[in-house]
Amino acid sequence: MRIDILTLFPGMFSGPLSESLLKKAREKGLIKINLINIRDFTEDKHQTTDDSPYGGGPGMVMKPEPIYKAVSSLNPKPTTRIILMCPAGETLTQEKAKELAGCEHLVIICGHYEGVDDRIRRNLVTDEISIGDYVLTGGEIPALVLTDCVSRLIPNVIKEEESFRRDSFFNGLLDYPSFTKPEKFREDEVPAVLRSGHHEAIDRFRRMESLEKTLFRRPDLLVNAEITEEDKDLLEQIVQKG
């Protein structure tokens, strides 16, 4: 996969893209991530990328021309997804990440100041994505979140594919709790079933824990989760247990 990130502040990406799984995935050629400085596509000596809003009001608005030229320089195909990170966009979910992970080319535009000239959104953008109902100083951190979320779903980025298939939200449920050594920590012991070696019992325990956590913390997820008849029996037991 190729991900091109358009930003006014490319330095914000140097650390996160040079560590952990993203670094390894880039070194292996599984993901190609390019940082494009929008200022490089301006035509004045001050590299102006913003101007005051028509109609008045506070702040500045990012100009459309540099963004359009930057995107055009990437030779996007009809299948390229051009994503604007903005608070008004569709909330990022695991389903959206899975959808985008199947694309060959993503272009991510990082908004800043009071936002981007709306003609970019209307004439260029294919997706508008938000990472939550709050406002940040710019789209760089949201772009990193999206890049990380999508990248880990690309084959071979995570060594054990089963790992992300058990993640919270992958199948519509929250993940079950995990434990490691020591067996006892501050008088709190690892559940006996996980030490039993009985794989069927372990799977049932984990599924029940996942269902219980989802039911009490995020019951809204159950509406679209992959629920089997056995899951329904487990949920009934959980409700009865209180």
What this model shows, in words?
The chain has 242 residues and is of the alpha/beta class. It has helices at 20-27, 64-72, 94-101, 118-123, 140-151, 161-165, 199-217, 229-241, and strands at residues 2-7, 32-37, 50-51, 61-62, 81-91, 105-110, 127-130, 184-185, 188-189. α7 (199-217) packs across α8. The mean pLDDT is 93.
What are the defining features of this structure?
single chain; 242 residues; alpha/beta; Alpha/beta knot; Trp Operon Repressor, Chain A; 8 helices; 33% helix
Low-confidence sequence ranges: none
| Strand arrangement across the biggest beta sheet | 2-1-6-5-7
What is the CATH architecture term of the largest domain? 3-Layer(aba) Sandwich
What letter string, H or E per element, gives the SSE order?
EHEEEHEHEHEHHEEHH
Query: What would you give as the CATH superfamily of the largest domain?
Result: SPOUT methyltransferase, trefoil knot domain
Give a quick summary of the entry:
The chain has eight helices and nine strands. It has 242 residues and is of the alpha/beta class.
